[in-house]
Amino acid sequence: MYQRILLPTDGSEASLHAIRAGAEFARTMGAEVVVMTATPEFSAFTATNEAIEQSRQEYEAAARARAQRLLDDGAAVVRDAHVTCHAVQAMADNPYEAIIATAREQKCDLIVMASHGRKGIAGLLLGSETQKVLARSTIPVMVHRALSRQEPGAPIGYKRILVPTDGSAISAQVLPAAIEFARACQAEIVALAVAVPEPILPSIEGAMVVDPGRQFEALQEEARTLAAAVAEKAVAAGVRCTPLVRLAQYPAESIVDTTREQACDLIFMGSHGRRGIGLLLAGSVTQAVLAAAPVPVMVLRPRAAAA
Question: Which residues pair with 192 in a beta bridge?
Fold first, then answer.
């Protein structure tokens, strides 16, 4: 399914954790890995031409040396997983641009990165950079939080995958990729539909405009239909699937809680959805899940969202 995986690094523990996870996944998939790091361009505001040239040479030499150390450390982790590794150093003031450009140039079909790194110039994998990659990349991105449930040295495997659905066109486009991923990993899918109740306001006379019980029943029935539709497609493709329905005011919390309850080891979701019950896969919900998920999150931006 995935043949060439990009693993960005800034040398932080978080990025090395993501590299290890990405390398183990690459071994499972029989894929190659590209380890890359980005170095900001040299800049000088006020200085003589001679001083600028000397400073530039010193900066570039130091930057090359540091980048090589980071690449060597990352490549060592990949080699330990017995995976073919290529190394790339990019010069760019905006790390997210370098990550996306390198992924395209190297013909990578997956980016695996950490959600947090270090601050300052070394902060290649700051949460903000990860968010920028997620917002702009047309290539799938698997995000590993530094505080994810996976322990150092534990084998990386995805056997139970949570797939939230809201019935939107975007979640429908994500589903085939989730099913294909599950087949490749011989994993089971947990299809989750969260019914989000609308606020109920009293009328002028003080009576309820909508019967809460009836509203909840209708929402849950709609959610059951959505989850069942995912299960039907998964089973037809030879993938085991458990449909689940949750009634919750906050979809992101329900996704995270269900991940724990169902012992899932990966969340697979789109980056946008629609309102109402479709609020489930809205960008804000995805960001909230990324911030709290106890396991890696695979995020896809379908073509319509990426345009």
Answer: 164, 244
